[in-house]
Amino acid sequence: MSTTGRGLHGQVLETLGPAITAGEYPPGSVLRTDELAQRFDVSRSVMREAVRVLESMHLVESRRRVGVTVRPKAEWNVYDPQVIRWRLAGADRPQQLRSLTVLRSAIEPVAAGLAAKHATADQCAELTECALGMVAHSRGHQLEGYLVHDVAFHRVILNASGNEMFARLGDVVAEVLAGRTHHEVMFEDPDPAAVTLHVQVAEAVRAGDAVRAEHLTREITVGALQELDILAP
Amino acid sequence: MSTTGRGLHGQVLETLGPAITAGEYPPGSVLRTDELAQRFDVSRSVMREAVRVLESMHLVESRRRVGVTVRPKAEWNVYDPQVIRWRLAGADRPQQLRSLTVLRSAIEPVAAGLAAKHATADQCAELTECALGMVAHSRGHQLEGYLVHDVAFHRVILNASGNEMFARLGDVVAEVLAGRTHHEVMFEDPDPAAVTLHVQVAEAVRAGDAVRAEHLTREITVGALQELDILAP
DNA sequence: TGTGACATATAAGTCTGACTTTTTGATCGC
DNA sequence: GCGATCAAAAAGTCAGACTTATATGTCACA
């Protein structure tokens, strides 16, 4: 899946990045470039490039005479897809999953509403196709096939919203959905009510009914929140 | 304002980053590290570090034997604060402002609803203080003072939501609001209705009324959308 | 005892030059 | 035409020397 880091600096990042996002180095920890270069058996220039990338993600700060200090989590660029992947792969996975699901619950309904207004005929067609695919794979433990269409569905919605920032969340949503199927054990077939909702969203978008599309999608995301026990008592 | 890029590579980035995000180099354009190093009069190692950062933002892709190619806008890390700043400062400003405002309209109401549930007593106090500050500066062309309290208000909401990803949007919202006051000419005093809404949101959060806080905040963001002529006819 | 100026050590930052590796595209033989 | 081979181009890597900023300790003086 994740392309094994391009170049030496990429390989270093794939070890160091997850280590930092997993909290192995508490905030304020100081690393030295030279020591890291030795540890990873790379030249200083390669290690410097890796540190620059971590710095651009606000995971660390590099200062003269002091070294490379790890920044507190509150300052990380938590929307960086790389950071999200690292956190999802490590000890921070539960919290990352929760905050991403809340994010989805805010974005996707609005995106669906916009999609109802902006979706092209092609996108509408693709959407119904995805929904039908979900229905077709909703019974008999065809979880993989279901996932493919589910991911595609939400991707189309986000793209059809016409908002570039919404569209860029497609990968993130894909990883959340994939995680639900793969990591969190999913024994049973998907909830039939959820499948129906997807079909109805596709219909609403096709009909240009923004209010309905938004409302239905909100129901979907409420379901996602409930799966993680995020709800109002 | 923006700290003049730390180190030589930072200075290079402050020229090259805005140039790319402004579309000066169309997607597919090929740059060569050596040529860039000459152009900016820095060593290759410094230029390589700058390219690495651009690469981590998905603005460019570096491949052997071909060079550093500019990626299409659809692949950029549009949530990177640096990228957002560059786009807001350049030719892409209008579109960036619109997509950010739509993003706000999705996030902030949900954040306000969560804030009503999670806000601490301190945060509630700070919130009312901000709202009162807005009222106090809402008449007589005290736009700067109004802005300060407006920004603080939305920051508190986002932080009080308890969602780390929402909280990280504080800086972005601040820049959007500041832009509205500074760049977009704002002759008159702020809309009294908007001021009232902020006060009411503070009350709702204090009262723990999530539904009301969400609804009121949605009205605020609708106003922001209307300012940019983003509406449903 | 506290405070300021000064010296020193440290780690990042920068530059240079040589070398390696990958990949494109052209050439050549079939 | 087509596949294998080869050469050039650009990024990638490394090593070493040098520069610069700065945290910290020292010492003199109040």
Automatic annotation (TrEMBL), chains A, B:
Answer yes or no on keyword Transcription regulation: yes
Q: Where is the HTH gntR-type domain?
A: 6-73
Q: Which InterPro entries match?
A: GntR_C, TF_FadR/GntR_C, Tscrpt_reg_HTH_GntR, WH-like_DNA-bd_sf, WH_DNA-bd_sf
- One protein family per Pfam: FCD
CDD domains per record: WHTH_GntR
Q: Which domain of life is it from?
A: Bacteria
DNA-binding keyword on record: yes
PROSITE patterns for this protein:
HTH_GNTR (PS50949)
- Keywords associated with the record: DNA-binding, Transcription, Transcription regulation
One Gene Ontology molecular-function label: DNA-binding transcription factor activity
Name of the protein in its database record: FadR family transcriptional regulator
What is the scientific name of the source organism? Streptomyces muensis
